[in-house]
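Attaching the record inline, Q. Sequence:
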Amino acid sequence: MDILDELAEKFALTLDSQLCNDSNYLKSTALLHEFSEGLSAEQSAELDDIAAGLTSASFNAGVRSGLKLGARIAVGLIGGYK
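Structure, as predicted:
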């Protein structure tokens, strides 16, 4: 398993809880749910799957970017002490 994937799993609960406390995320989720009520059950389920995929991809990209930035900062700080 990729180390970034392992770290993402370790931080998933903390980051997920932050996302669920984000008012923009909650509002967007509510609007999407409201919109999906006008669709057939199959279309609504497909829309839910797409939204979940987008959320997951955004979450994973954010974690990876943050970890890479943190690593670069750490290397810079360590290199500064030489």
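The chain has a mean pLDDT of 82. The helical segments are 3-20, 23-36, 41-80.

More tomorrow.
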